[in-house]
Design a protein that fits this description.
Layout lengths: L1 H15 L3 E5 L2 E5 L1 H24 L3 E3 L5 E2 L3 H5 L3 E2 L2 E5 L6 E6 L1
Antiparallel strand pairs: 1-2, 3-4, 3-7, 5-6, 6-7
Amino acid sequence: MKRASLISLAASVPLLLSSCDAHIGSKHIDLPWWVIVLIIASSVGISLFAANHEITKNKYKCKECGKTFYPTMRQAVFSLHAGDERVFKCPHCGRKGFCIKQ
């Protein structure tokens, strides 16, 4: 039963997503669904690229050993932060705590 309902849902999705209504100002435009998906996917991709460039180009300084390092995108995205400081594990001394942006 569950499988049959999933198959029927998958078959009906293209029919449901055949077009989307877009309102730009007072104009009404009927767009294909893939245009909306393309616009959203490209804007998310551009945002991720810009964030990656901005975050990973910054050096951070460990408060304990004083050495600087570049974090990876994954480290920077999932770290806690307050102002210009982020919580990282120092690759040199192993201390985990707030590091200062250089």
